[in-house]
Amino acid sequence: MKRQVNIACIVSDDRPAESCVGDWVLVHVGFAMSRIDEKEAAETLKILTELGEAQAEIEAMRLSATEVGRAAS
Amino acid sequence: MKYIDEFRDREKAAALIKEIEALVAEIPMAKERPIHIMEVCGGHTHSIFRYGIEGMLPKEIELVHGPGCPVCVLPMGRVDDCVAIAERPGVIFTTFGDAMRVPGSKKSLMQAKADGADIRMVYSPMDALEIARKNPEREVVFFGLGFETTMPSTALTVLQAEREGIANFSVFCNHITIVPTLKAILESPDLNIDAFIGPGHVSMVIGTAPYEFIASFYKKPMVVSGFEPLDVLQSIWMVLKQIKDGRAEIENQYARVVPDAGNSAAQDAVEKVYELRDFFEWRGLGSIDHSGVKLRAAYARYDAELKFALPNLQVADPAACQCGAVLKGVIKPWQCALFGTACTPETPLGALMVSSEGSCAAYYQYGGIKAQAGAA
Question: Member of which family (chain B) (predicted)?
């Protein structure tokens, strides 16, 4: 789909219109309101990935502790 | 799509839910009563129902669906005003699609259109301006609706009309502002909320600083959140961490879109074009001081309220409607006697049944039957 979008809110003297090309933006009612910050997006996902990994480790430790327990008894 | 699919990952959601469960177990208050978290924004309400997030959460957490659906809180009298403008000869009335079915005291815009009024759905206020350019002999009115998210786009369109000298364009301004509304909720004597999920797209415009009073004065935590399921879950997790630590802060989960300072170009346009009204009437919540904006005197010729004589009558909601109590989290949608019987998404009586972002409509579409069965 192709649509005209107003970019007045995401350009400024230090971020001219040409610098938008290739950027992902959030468009609301035909106006680009924010450039998506790639670093922040990656940071949020990193926290969530680490959360999953930490849980997997705890789970693995719990399981191996049970195994050791069984072996000892 | 990029920045969307990653935030819908099932494994990460499962990990977050485990963390949430672990946190809840460490919060003593949760053993005595549920923790009430209000999502202010209708977009969040929609996500929560669409992805079944309530069902994933431990039973100690109750989500309260807030007032942040601009269509839902539009009073009947304002809809009557829209219909009155739209039915004037020579007028083309333009609106976002979701306002079409909001009931007025006599009819909705949809019904007025069926009766012959020239009412057109637009995607952007710029589309309304384009209609004005193409129809110089007609008066084109745009129905400006929404919180700070849409406020700048209407303002920029008015500024564009001024630059081009387009005289047959005007705005029926019903924009509303979030902070006075949050204050009204926080001041409510039957307040029953422990923390807030803050609106993502309003905040991308106004930033996070305007919410500071919620933490500093009312001592309630708030996390500004994105709209994908992982965003909402992570925000709930962050809110719970604050409760567990005894902190009350304004945190930003949606930093990929929301800079802490907001969007200065959008803020400038808003400041230039609008001023606060003394009060604004909300469906379900009543009148809230300084909660709406109107065009400044410098833009009076673009103000449909001044251009056209409006009935401007206050029309009370049907007496049996309990939208206010639902909005404040005092009752659940299905506890209202009208829910799903007299009031349905096809023939809404109350505000919250109107838009897909309204909590009653969301319960009706996605979870009503289960919620009622669970309660019985």
Answer: Belongs to the HypD family.
* Residues in chain A within 8 Å Cβ distance of B19: 51, 55
Which residues of B are less than 8 Å from A44 in CB distance?
Answer: 234, 253, 255-256
Answer whether A4 sits within 8 Å of B234, measured CB to CB: no
- Which CATH architecture describes the domain B5-69+179-252? 3-Layer(aba) Sandwich (3.40)
Are B15 and A40 within 8 A, CB to CB?
no
Question: Residue B128: its chain A contacts at CB < 8 A?
Answer: none
Q: State the pTM of this model.
A: 0.90
Per residue in B293-319, pLDDT (tens digit) is 999 999 999 999 999 988 877 787 778
Q: Do A44 and B255 touch (CB under 8 A)?
A: yes
Nearest 10 degrees: Cα torsion B233, B238, B243, B244: 100
Pairing of strands A31-35, B169-175: unpaired
Give the ipTM. 0.87
pLDDT for the residue B10: 87
Which CATH code fits B76-176+292-307?
3.40.50.11740
Give the C-alpha separation, B284 to B282, whole Å.
6
Domain range list for chain B? 5-69+179-252, 76-176+292-307, 323-364
